[in-house]
Amino acid sequence: MKNEAGAPIFRFRQFSVAQQSAAMKVNTDGVLLGAWADVSGARRILDVGAGTGVIALMLAQRNAAAQIDAVEIDALSAQEARENVQNSPWRHRITVYGQSFQSFAAQNAARYDLVVSNPPYFTKALLPPSEIRKRTRHTEELPHEELLSGVKKILQPDGAFCVVLPFTEGLAFIEQSAAHQLFCTHQTAVSGKMGKAPKRLLLHFSAAPAPVKKDALIIHRSDGSYTPGYKALTGAFYLFNE
After folding, report:
1. Domain for residue 161, yes or no?
2. What is the domain range of residue 221?
């Protein structure tokens, strides 16, 4: 990577992301989702919980034809995402909305070919003292049931919904999604290091049930270097130090 996720500016190959004000900084989960989600054929894409805008920017880089909307409830994050979009090569194809996803889904008549989200996931853990941290990582602001019902409303009948979640929460999310007629058709288990249990699930849902494709991704080799698989997935974005 070019710089650490906590740095004020995170530099990718084709764009940079300022993250001084955003509640959620650039992180591996978001980069994984932005690189992994299937953007082929998508003309309208929605990013739920945009944060800095990094996922929307990655999807714009990967799909030169798509119009991308991004919704973010935190006002400071939404403003920083807008600035990151304006400073990118894709400023005319990305629009950032500063509101809750629930209100966005209720008010918006548009249908999307692809919806992506790096959603809040702590449902039972103790809440942290920071209100911003609570919003970005805990489901009080966006319960998974409300995320799923909103996605079902705005997704094209043949559209796709992609998320990244911790492993245990991801398994529960698969069960919840089926009740909303959203069926997992691809899941990638992500391990931080060789020999370690997977910590994340990348999940692809569609409205039609199908056999689930299951595969795995390891980020680091035993010596701490990036694996060829991780480099292949994210190499269009990261400036790896060889």
Report:
1. yes
2. 9-234
